[in-house]
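Course exercise 7: structure representation. Students receive a sequence record and must write out the corresponding structure in token form. The form below is the worked example handed out in class, using Small ribosomal subunit protein uS4c (194 residues). Read each field label carefully; the graders check that inputs and outputs are placed in the correct fields and that the protein name is recorded exactly as given.

STUDENT ID: A-19
EXERCISE PROTEIN: Small ribosomal subunit protein uS4c
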Amino acid sequence: TSRHRGPRAKIVRRPGRSPGPTRKRPNKKPGYANQSTPTTKAPPYRIRSEEKQRSRFHHGPTEQQSLRYVRLARRAKGSTGQVSLQSLETRSDNIIPRLGMASTIPGARQSVTHEHTPANDHAINIPSYRREPTDAIAVRQPFRGGNSSNRIGEQNDSTLYPRAGLAVQPVDRKWIDPNTNELPAVEYHPRQAQ
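STUDENT ANSWER:
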């Protein structure tokens, strides 16, 4: 599969990793047992590859979707890295946690797949569907997947739209994790994105 299905705390424990789409926190220091964190400088290709994998782990796109976002960002005006990062943040499974309708991105992805979060009263079941500014987003019914909706508040099954939100504007760079470095992730696709 193209997405990470294994243990998430193992990835979060790596040096420089942001928590990502998980509530788990490592109880050990980075590095293997009885070993210190390596201090050698990583080669540029490794840095680009790790940043690309970090973006995929956090936002959840497939390899082809990541390449498509980079291609669209290179054609758009502005910084290629910031435009591609904004494209990732406008995905349905990324914008729903920002509105408080889900606690994690994987939980939001599952609720979108089950059509629990329509946009402008239209059912959407594609997690990578791009939400535009002024899109009205709602939770159609309480989600029982153990992730988000039932933790935010108890809802009645007869309520059609218990919660709703509005995407007012594109995500600003200052709202994103400062440890995220989008430029090496974009530079990982130099030729494929032409």
